[in-house]
Structure prediction request, 233 residues.
Amino acid sequence: MRSVPWWGIASALIAPFALIGGWTLAADLQPGSFDAVSRSISSLAAYGATDRWVMTLGLFIVGACNLLTGLALHSAPRNGRILLMAGGVFGLLIAVSPESMGGTGIGSLRHAVVAGLGCAVMTAWPLAALRREPWAPAGLRPAATFGVTGFLLALIAWFCFEVVSGGDMIGLAERAVTGVQTLWPLVVVATVVAAARRRPAARPVPAVSPSRSGRLGRPEAPCAPRAAAGLAG
Prediction:
């Protein structure tokens, strides 16, 4: 089993810190009191937000990290890696597609479409990365992949309910969804690294040189004719 290169481990580690650190610092920079429970992450990077570059940079780093992690996760099936990399690309597009002031207009529509597609692929990639082999890392096994996907679907349903009903916990629901989606690649990488350490690659068997084959195996063929010739003489 191939482990994860150092840069893939680093990208998986950086992503959650960039996301959580980004929304925390950006909220602290807003004038007055910013209510993270009721207000979305997107509002921190929207046109008109104070120091919107902080949340924009955080979203950009998360997208780039997910893209790198997908490239590095060789133990996952190809479809799962492609979806994780697609999630990274959508993350980059979210960073460069901020909401318009007030959450209306073409900019907000573009942001909503890109964010929705990104959420979909980041929810689907664990199922596409499922492995059923006995040696599969814990993060890629059916129990883990079905479990995290079901949990994410429940969180997304909660978020949609808050949006449709105009609830006062939209921000909390959105942070729960994006937080789990950003932490899960790190969980998978950790289980892949642990499994690779428990199951080291088999060492190659050294080849036997032709000059030693007679001593290690059967006697060399030319010896028999010479011995027979000696007896006959």
Remarks:
- The first helix runs from residue 6 to 29.
- Residues 201-205, 207-233 have pLDDT under 50 and may be disordered.
- The two ends are 62 Å apart (CA to CA).
